[in-house]
């Protein structure tokens, strides 16, 4: 039996495990133990087998197998030989036609002639974007380490700051404007819409040199780093080492004002009869858009601007479009974006638990009052209830001090995902289940969800393009 040893250097592994010389010597030992005659030693020195770059020695190896010169490949680990599904498929094809054994130091022998062997091959080779994933992980770690050290890592200049040789410094002119915006928002009660209008009328541009939009302004104002608060992925990790532009007190005032307005905007849902009536805004005049009968005897409905009837559109297609956007926001956002307390409990779950405790205490005191039990008998229980209650209240307070919007979203998510767990094996199945659950929500719940996730405006024109949708939470979808 003629064998080839194949080794590959890859940057993602520690030198200890992956050094080519170590791979080679361990493969030689294995070949000797199995009585294989090694006629060829091949090595590729690429960075990663998943980048799609051609590996010359790998290609040569396949040629040798096809020519019948090699019947066994010895590798340190199958992931040296293949990482991409495409590579595995080629090897399997050749193995079927010419016969090929793979023996590995780390994962034993792989028999590519049987389906189960091929399944094992695909598993032990970590077919997928293994190395790619690792790279992002490393990058994340690097970012979070920097964040923990109080540094601000940014690839695009944030408004109000720039990076110099001395570090991140304040751009005074922009800082003054920012302070003014914060105060006008939380003290003057001006809307983001009004602030954006003012900024653009004054010809002010964003840090990337564009006119301001509501999304751009929201992203700027929502950045806790202006108060010197360092955060990583939305989680506060400490104090930054740069000069703040507003005080922590101003930041709290801003956050308070912002969450109050959010709650107000989503609490008009009591008598809702359609998904979007009153939620959509007119892109022309900014007025509310309501749903009404077309009045042409067709029994169909439309969404129309309530102020000047600047815009109108058939209701059903708009509903369908918005539903799809809301679902994609749910699919690609909240699990990562929404803060959870350590037990994953939500505000309403904690409230429920609290009222259960209250109920138990009432039962006990009632029994006590009627002389059914003695105080000595129930005192331990009452004390236990008190301790539990304090713990729950503390956790609920912690949640309340977080974002109000996040709480509402958490509750919606809890309703949406109540019942059997969603299987994550299959992306299409997840989508279908999500849609089913969304459709199962009451109309007010759906409206709440939609207005939290999306900013919807109706513009002039025809077709789906006039429905302007901005994602509030999952801004990456915008
Ligand atoms: Zn209008």
From TrEMBL:
<dbReference type="InterPro" id="IPR036162">
    <property type="entry name" value="Resolvase-like_N_sf"/>
</dbReference>
<dbReference type="Pfam" id="PF07508">
    <property type="entry name" value="Recombinase"/>
</dbReference>
<feature type="domain" description="Recombinase">
    <location>
        <begin position="158"/>
        <end position="265"/>
    </location>
</feature>
<dbReference type="InterPro" id="IPR050639">
    <property type="entry name" value="SSR_resolvase"/>
</dbReference>
<feature type="domain" description="Resolvase/invertase-type recombinase catalytic">
    <location>
        <begin position="2"/>
        <end position="150"/>
    </location>
</feature>
<dbReference type="Pfam" id="PF00239">
    <property type="entry name" value="Resolvase"/>
</dbReference>
<dbReference type="InterPro" id="IPR038109">
    <property type="entry name" value="DNA_bind_recomb_sf"/>
</dbReference>
<dbReference type="InterPro" id="IPR006119">
    <property type="entry name" value="Resolv_N"/>
</dbReference>
<dbReference type="GO" id="GO:0000150">
    <property type="term" value="F:DNA strand exchange activity"/>
</dbReference>
<dbReference type="InterPro" id="IPR011109">
    <property type="entry name" value="DNA_bind_recombinase_dom"/>
</dbReference>
<protein>
    <submittedName>
        <fullName>DNA invertase Pin-like site-specific DNA recombinase</fullName>
    </submittedName>
</protein>
<dbReference type="GO" id="GO:0003677">
    <property type="term" value="F:DNA binding"/>
</dbReference>
